[in-house]
Every structure is written in C-alpha cells, then in structure tokens.
C-alpha cells in the first residue's frame, strides 16, 4: 500500500556515506492496519543496504510473540520466492538467515533485552508496552554501529506508557522521523467518517464491517486506544462507572466512636497528597459499610499526617489502621506501627494480594450498591479518575493519573480492614 511504501522510502534514506539519515523512527497507527506487513517490508528493504552479516533484531510484547513474528516473516519471505532465505523454528533458536549472512532474531522486551548483541537494525513492535528498564537495555545494543537504526511501530498506550509517550512527543516536535494516524482529541471516535482519516488501510486490507464488529465488542476505552489510536487517560473512562458512585453516596455521617482507618499517600505532580479514610458500619435501616474521607491535604508533609493520626487515635476508638507498604506510605510504616502498638490497635501493612482483594471488595460493593460513602471533592475526583492496572487475571488501581488517587487507595484499605474485623461479613467478594 502507498503509505507503507512512503514510510519505507524515508526510513531507508541514506546519506553520502551510505549511513541511514534517520536513526530513530516511530510509526503510530491503529490496530489491523498492516503494521506486521510494514515490519516485513522494512526488514527486506534494510537487508538490501546493510553490510553482509548484519544482525536485525525484532522485539514485541514478549519474546514468544517476537519469535512468532520472526518465524511468520521468514515463512512469508520463503513463500514469496525470495532466494536464499532460511527459517529456523527451534524453540529458543528462532531466526531468519539471508543468503548474505544477515540474520533476524527475536529479543525479549526485558531489562536484559539485547544483552550480548550489537544490532544494525531493530524493530520494536508495540512500543507502548516497552518499559523504561527494557528500553534502557535495548538502546545500547543499537548505538555501536554507524548504520544502526531503531524503528518502532505501535498503537498509542496509556499514562503508564512512558517510553511511547516520550517518543510521540519527540516525533511531534520533529526530533525523530514520525508518522501518526489517529482521531484527534475532541472528535467522535464512533463517527465512521473519522475512521477513514485515521485508518490508512480502511477499505483496502480491512473492511468497515470489521471495525464495526470491534466497536460493538470492545469496551469504549479499549476501542479508543486500539482503533482511534489515542492515549487513554483517566479522565476519559473511569474503572468505576459514575452511576455506581452516585447511587452509593449516602447522607453525611458524623465520625462514630468506633471505626477503622485506611491511610495512603499519593502524588499530584510533585506534591504529596496524604489521605485518611474511615470505615464503619452505618446506622441506617440496612446496616452497610460506610466510607468517609476524614482528611486529605494537598502539599501536606509527613509530620502533618503523623500528627493527624495521633489526633484521631486520641479522640476515637480506632480498631485498626491499614496502609500499603508497597506504596508511598511506606515512609510512615514504622511510626504508625509504633503508635498502634502503644494503643493496642491492630496495625495492617497489607500484602499485594490483600490490596487486590480490597479493590475487588470495593468494586463489587459499589456495583451491588452494598456500601455508602460520603461526598467530598477529592474523593469524587479520585473515583472519576480510577483506572485499572492489570495484574494477570486480577487488577488494582493504577497510580498513574492526572489527579491524586490517594482517597481511593485509602478507601480500599479501609474497607478491606473493616471486612477483616467482621465476624459475619455482609459484603461478599465476587
């Protein structure tokens, strides 16, 4: 297709010394537009001008995925009748061998990616999934030779995709060779007229009906990332449906004599945002757990947090205090633990599994309208900005957000601690 040929001609531009003009390039494009074929074309085109015996690397979201891409590409080359191509398929030894001794091998997108290799050309498939540590391992493997290039082909990612987002910013500023097809912010991602501008292969290798099927089957946030090719931000699609949050908002409740506390420390830019959420059993007709944002301070330091916790311990019967030692609150674990031990309060430094369980409990309780919560600006903003961070087949809240999520993390810790203290929990984890 024409757009693939245009990109290939630019990537393969050489200077007077037969070295590539563009050392880095990024092609940001929606799914199903032919990026796999583009990668194959680039391998063939660069193999023509690279020195004999060169090494071409291919990395993807996993080594297994990269190995599959290499074997598939080599098979396509053989079927196309390209002379002298050999494909090795053995697990761990997958590669393409060209007649002039140039090899194409898969590499893992890990913190040891590229170790022991020096690449003349490297393709990064789905840059959005490459971590900073992996990129730190990849780049040294492509800077030792004057002919070296690194070309990334990827859809946009999310706020956690820091490598991809930085390359996009550099491309838009003209610092690297860059192509982007996407639906601009402010445009309707479900408007089919917009698809024709954002998808260069629409009507050629992919039909409109195929995109309609994806639209019908995908979560809107996933469709926005994959087919509108936009960075998905927390303000666009919260993990907590707004109607769940609105339906569970309860009347204001005074802090009771007995409660548990969840404590978290977030960041809003460079500013610390500690939050304290209390959980107790509501006094309504149908007793339910109630969550209340007791305090939240933007810019407050650790001394304020410790003093505020001491104040609450002195005024109320705090049955348990819970925090996440894997998060920013780790700096206050020892001080708060010591306070709890002096007062006979249960102190809970939750494990990652317990934090995940707390997220599931809070999420299912909101879904089933099986809790109530107070109204507070930072609390509402955190719920509206909640985004999932996948952990295998489970997930937690992502801390990457344009607003502080410390009230939401504190609420998760509070309801998880509250549930542990109930002899007969009224809220089930699904």
Short description:
The protein is of the alpha/beta class. The chain has helices at about 1-10, 35-50, 65-80, 130-140, 160-170, 190-200, 210-215, 220-225, 240-245, 300-315, 335-345, 350-365, 375-385, 405-420; strands at about 25-30, 55-60, 85-90, 95, 105, 120-125, 150-155, 175-180, 260-270, 270-280, 290-295, 315-325, 345-350, 370-375, 390, 395.
Instruction: Enumerate how many helices there are, as a single number.
Output: 14
CATH class of the largest domain: Alpha Beta
Gross geometry: elongated
Helix content: 25-40%
The CATH architecture classification of the largest domain is: 3-Layer(aba) Sandwich
Taking the sheet with the most strands, its summary is: 8 strands, mixed
Instruction: Give the name of the CATH superfamily of the largest domain.
Output: P-loop containing nucleotide triphosphate hydrolases
What does this structure look like?
The protein is an alpha/beta fold and 430 residues long. It has two domains: 2-226, Rossmann fold, CATH 3.40.50.300; 242-420, 2-Layer Sandwich (Nucleotidyltransferase, domain 5). Helices cover 36% and strands 20% of the residues. It is built from 14 helices and 16 strands. Strands 3-4-5-2-6-7-1-8 form an eight-stranded mixed beta sheet, sandwiched between helices.
For the structure shown, list the relevant keywords:
Nucleotidyltransferase, domain 5; six-stranded mixed β-sheet; eight-stranded mixed β-sheet; elongated; alpha/beta
Blueprint (SSEs and pairs):
Blueprint: H1 2-11, E1 24-28, H2 35-49, E2 55-59, H3 63-79, E3 86-88, E4 95-97, E5 103-107, E6 121-125, H4 132-138, E7 149-154, H5 162-172, E8 177-180, H6 192-198, H7 208-217, H8 220-226, H9 242-247, E9 258-268, E10 271-281, E11 289-296, H10 302-315, E12 317-323, H11 333-343, E13 346-349, H12 352-367, E14 372-373, H13 377-384, E15 388-391, E16 394-397, H14 406-420
Parallel strand pairs: 1-7, 1-8, 2-5, 2-6, 6-7, 9-12, 11-14, 12-13
Antiparallel strand pairs: 3-4, 4-5, 9-10, 10-11, 15-16
Helix pairs in contact: 10-11, 12-14
């Amino acid at each position: 297709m024409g757009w693939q040929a245009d990109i290939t001609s630019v990537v393969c531009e050489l200077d007077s010394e037969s070295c590539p003009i563009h050392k880095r390039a990024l092609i940001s494009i929606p799914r199903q537009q032919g990026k796999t074929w583009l990668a194959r074309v680039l391998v063939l085109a660069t193999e023509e001008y690279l020195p004999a015996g060169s090494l071409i690397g291919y990395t993807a979201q996993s080594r297994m995925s990269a190995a599959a891409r290499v074997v598939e590409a080599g098979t396509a080359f053989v079927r196309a009748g390209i002379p002298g191509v050999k494909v090795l398929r053995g697990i761990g030894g997958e590669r393409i061998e060209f007649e002039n001794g140039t090899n194409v091998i898969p590499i893992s997108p890990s913190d040891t990616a590229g170790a022991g290799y020096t690449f003349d050309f490297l393709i990064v498939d789905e840059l959005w999934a490459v971590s900073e540590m992996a990129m730190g391992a990849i780049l040294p493997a492509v800077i030792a030779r004057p002919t070296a290039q690194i070309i990334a082909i990827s859809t946009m990612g999310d706020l956690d995709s820091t490598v991809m987002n930085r390359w996009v910013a550099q491309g838009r500023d003209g610092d690297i060779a860059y192509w982007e097809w996407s639906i601009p912010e402010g445009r309707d991602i479900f408007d089919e007229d917009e698809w024709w501008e954002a998808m260069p292969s629409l009507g050629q290798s992919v039909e409109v009906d195929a995109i309609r099927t994806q639209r019908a089957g995908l979560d809107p946030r996933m469709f926005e990332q994959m087919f509108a090719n936009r960075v998905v931000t927390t303000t666009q699609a919260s993990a907590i449906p707004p109607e769940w949050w609105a339906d569970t908002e309860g009347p204001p409740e005074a802090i009771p004599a007995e409660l548990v506390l969840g404590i978290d420390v977030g960041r809003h830019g460079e500013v610390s945002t500690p939050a304290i959420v209390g959980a107790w059993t509501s006094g309504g007709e149908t007793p339910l757990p109630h969550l209340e944002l007791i305090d939240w301070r933007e810019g407050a330091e650790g001394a304020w947090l410790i003093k505020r916790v001491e104040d609450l311990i002195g005024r109320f019967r705090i049955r348990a205090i819970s925090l996440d030692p894997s998060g920013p609150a780790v700096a206050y674990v020892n001080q708060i633990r010591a306070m709890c031990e002096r007062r006979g309060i249960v102190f809970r430094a939750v494990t990652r599994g317990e934090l995940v369980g707390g997220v599931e409990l809070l999420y299912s309780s909101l879904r089933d309208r099986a809790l109530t919560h107070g109204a507070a600006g930072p609390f509402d903003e955190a719920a509206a900005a909640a985004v999932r961070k996948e952990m295998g087949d489970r997930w937690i809240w992502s801390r990457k957000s344009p607003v502080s999520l410390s009230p939401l993390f504190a609420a998760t810790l509070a309801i998880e601690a509250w549930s542990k203290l109930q002899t007969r929990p009224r809220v089930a984890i699904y």
